[in-house]
Specification:
Helix content: 40-55%
CATH architecture of one domain: Orthogonal Bundle
Distance between the termini: 33 Å
Mean pLDDT: 93
Largest sheet: 5 strands, antiparallel
Radius of gyration: 22 Å
Number of strands: 7
Strand content: 5-15%
Low-confidence stretches: 1-17
Length: 387
């Protein structure tokens, strides 16, 4: 489910410098030479890469992420099941002492990690069956995001030297993430925590290790201790919609003066926030606090991030959101047509993929302002026709 932690765009010159593409065997030989140059023993390097092969399933998975074309309501209803909510509460009780340590050491609330744990691997039950080394080498050889994946190979080699990575047996997600909360090898090297005290960092089999490591990574990404991340709100009909969206952050007191209220509890005081309308002014509404932006360092999908953050609030007692009555959205083909029109007008939409991501939403809002439409960043057929 999880997308790579950092989405990057590269020029052809940077791709060439990284040596992606070409004959796969020659590419692996280059990796071996670089590993030796980094100080690894030639025999260990040969053993590490001995069985590596290109995995066509990885490339297919990388190019078919249609699940993220769903809107927020459809996606959140599909992945936040009663079973996941019940199991979340059970795991919160079962690992209460671990979550207490997480809150003390890293300032991360239990619901945040429980939501990631559920969405990434269904609480550890579905961790992926892709050979991790094959996945990383395949994606590094592919020229779409070599600067993200190539360093992960050498991080995996470091883990192998520590005895924490078996190139033949370690399996995980198609994009190379490992364990219950799906972390890339570099993230494990940087943030791995021996949460159960057995002398090893095992994110595949130890919930304490996985939870503590995930919390440490979130803190390193900028998580602010003890602060909220997302809260459902009620917005007045006359709100200036052009002020909504993640690009506008205002003091909570200013939002309150405009008539914005918390739906089930008061707005957090002393913070800045953004009014987030994932399906426009007639759909669900949330206040996104500074910690919400950290989610985008974990995953770049707007709908995934919003769902994960909302799910975390549900696991901590928030009621189901008010779905409202949003205007009909666009089909994937219509969304691609819209993105093409937006791009032609000079907007950066992050790619013609039919996915309503953060960049497309920002471009939509700018065009809504220009055309005199309600600027709530929700693309409709009226906008498409207007362009």
């Amino acid at each position: 489910m999880r997308l790579p932690a950092i989405a990057l765009a590269f020029t052809m010159s940077s791709q060439a410098a990284l040596g992606c593409g070409g004959n796969f065997g020659s590419f692996v030989a280059e990796l071996k030479s670089e590993a030796v140059a980094r100080g690894h023993a030639p025999a260990r390097v040969e053993a590490f890469f001995a069985g590596v092969r290109q995995d066509s399933r990885v490339l297919k998975a990388d190019r078919s992420q249609g699940v993220f074309q769903k809107n927020f309501i459809d996606f959140s209803r599909a992945v936040i099941s009663k079973n996941r909510l019940v199991n979340g509460q059970r795991n919160a009780q079962r690992y209460q002492s671990v979550f207490q340590r997480v809150a003390r050491d890293y300032g991360v609330s239990p619901g945040v990690l429980l939501a990631f744990w559920a969405l990434e691997t269904d609480y550890g039950a579905v961790q992926g069956d892709f050979n991790t080394l094959n996945a990383l080498v395949t994606l590094s050889h592919d020229c779409r995001r070599p600067a993200l994946f190539r360093p992960q190979i050498f991080a995996a080699l470091e883990l192998h030297q520590r005895g924490d990575f078996d190139p033949a047996r370690t399996k995980g997600a198609w994009a190379g993430e490992i364990g219950m909360v799906q972390m890339l090898p570099e993230d494990i090297l940087r943030n791995g925590v021996d949460g159960d005290g057995d002398g090893k960092v095992s994110l595949k089999t130890s919930p304490p290790d996985a939870l503590m490591s995930g919390a440490r990574m979130l803190r390193g990404l900028g998580w602010r201790s003890g602060e909220p991340w997302l809260q459902e709100i009620v917005v007045p009909e006359g709100l200036d919609w052009s002020k909504t969206g993640l690009q506008t952050q205002l003091p909570v007191t200013e939002w309150a003066r405009m008539g914005v209220k918390g739906r089930s509890e008061a707005l957090a005081q002393g913070l800045r926030g953004s009014v987030l309308l994932p399906m426009g002014r007639k759909g669900p509404a949330f206040m996104a606090y500074p910690n919400f932006h950290v989610y985008f360092e974990w995953n770049k999908s707007f709908v995934y991030v919003t769902t994960a953050a909302y799910f975390a609030t549900r696991l901590e007692g928030a009621p189901p959101y008010d779905a409202g009555n949003p205007e009909a959205g666009l089909s994937p083909n219509q969304m691609q047509a819209l993105q093409q029109k937006l791009q032609a007008r000079g907007h950066d939409v992050g790619g013609i993929d039919g996915i309503l991501g953060a960049k497309t939403r920002e471009a939509v809002q700018k065009e809504q302002i220009r055309l005199g439409l309600p600027a709530d960043a929700w693309p409709t057929r009226a906008l498409l026709a207007g362009l």
